[in-house]
Specification:
single chain, 238 residues, mainly alpha, transmembrane helix, ABC-type transporter activity, transmembrane, ABC transporter permease subunit
Amino acid sequence: MNTVVASITYRAMLGRKRIWLLALLPIALIAFALLFRFIGGGDESVAVELMKVFAIGTMLPLLGLIAGTGVIAPEIEDGTIIHLMSKPISRPVIAFTKFVVAASLMVAFSVIPTYVAAYILIGTESGIASGFALGALFAGIAYAAVFLLLGVVSRHAVTIGVIYALVWEGLIGGYVPGARRFSIQQWAQSIADQMTTTAFLKSEVALSFAVPAMVIVVVGSVLWAGQRLRVLSLTGDE
């Protein structure tokens, strides 16, 4: 990991405009939790549904898209990545550093708000807050890696990422039984299910499949992104 690259990337991601893109969905999640708590909807079923539908099902993939593509895709599009690659820094190191930044942003803007929102609703009851936070952690890291790779291999990363998040994760991965095994969202729910004792959450993907799948996706995506950067021409042409 290169600290200089990390510092530059953090400054870009936490700038005046992008930080609001990252913060909007977590703020909405916590606002929903406060609203449900205020109107007396703070029970297990409401908490689980909010975590499944909004935190894991909506917020997580969209934040992964913003963080994962945001750490590198804009630099490739405007050509500023060429200046970075002209430095004596290994391109796999650049990719890994970008991944670490994206993953850390996912922790700050998705994992912590997920725990806070669930805690607001039902405290530590049934382990729902910690269970979904842990699921969000693993899935957030996976999303960061996948969307980082997408940002490297395609100049239409955001468009493809939105389609992936909404169509595959939101529709196909959520409702087609066979496709659920290959949905990061479903992997997150599998981890949450194992960590909670609530009767309102039942994952259809085994933990023994979900965890290794996440590891393979993360390692494979980061390595592929590093190799892809190796063949990126210093003229800016692929």
